[in-house]
User: Which sequence fits this backbone?
């Protein structure tokens, strides 16, 4: 079962639609039992870091998510804010993150370029991953964000993207995957990435 975690911050319906498009069923849920039964988890997110953590706490989802991800090693894909919540903390807020990976979230400092970084951009694949199977090195994805990850362990970096300078655009650590871009808005490239996560991870 694929569980899309609904914590009131994210393009939940769009993510479910792309899963349906590649031929699979999923549930949108914030029910703890559903999450504990899931074979794969997706944590989308649009909004602020602290609001994301507050919402997960209020729904009592942090403990079951930690159990699934860090103990049971259930594959999880974080999208945009969802990936940022995997980190230790964020310059956008005051609260600690989920601490799934050794990273912080920092803001862009690339004047005179506009912030947020918004629109289509290409990726540079740093290490081989099943997540990018059948995707070319110049695949294009859709971004909307003002913050990005600073990974203390560079082996977690899966791809980078250039906007003023190179930043981390996706990560992989064991069963933990994340992308700063929105695959649900990235047409054929996003469809392939979601298909890879479901079928190969």
Assistant:
């Amino acid at each position: 079962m694929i569980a899309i975690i609904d914590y009131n911050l994210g393009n939940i319906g769009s993510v479910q639609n792309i899963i349906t498009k590649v031929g699979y069923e999923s549930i949108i849920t914030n029910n703890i039992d559903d999450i504990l039964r899931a074979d794969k988890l997706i944590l989308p997110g649009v909004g602020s870091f602290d609001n994301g953590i507050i919402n997960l706490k209020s729904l009592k989802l942090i403990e079951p998510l930690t159990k699934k991800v860090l103990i049971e090693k259930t594959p999880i894909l974080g999208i945009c804010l969802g990936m940022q919540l995997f980190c230790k903390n964020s310059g956008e807020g005051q609260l600690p993150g989920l601490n799934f990976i050794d990273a912080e979230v920092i803001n862009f400092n690339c004047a005179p370029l506009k912030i947020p970084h918004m629109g289509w951009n290409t990726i540079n694949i740093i290490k081989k991953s099943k997540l990018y199977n059948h995707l070319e090195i110049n695949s294009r994805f859709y971004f909307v964000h003002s913050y990005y990850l600073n990974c203390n362990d560079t082996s977690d970096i899966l791809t980078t993207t250039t906007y003023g300078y190179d930043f981390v655009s996706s990560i992989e650590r064991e069963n933990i995957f994340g992308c700063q871009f929105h695959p649900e808005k990235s047409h054929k490239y996003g469809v392939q990435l979601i298909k890879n996560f479901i079928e190969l991870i």
User: Anything to note?
Assistant: The mean pLDDT is 96. The domain at 2-200 is CATH 3.40.50.880 (Rossmann fold). Helices lie at 12-21, 32-37, 49-58, 62-71, 81-84, 187-200. Residues 16 and 45 are 13 Å apart (CA to CA).
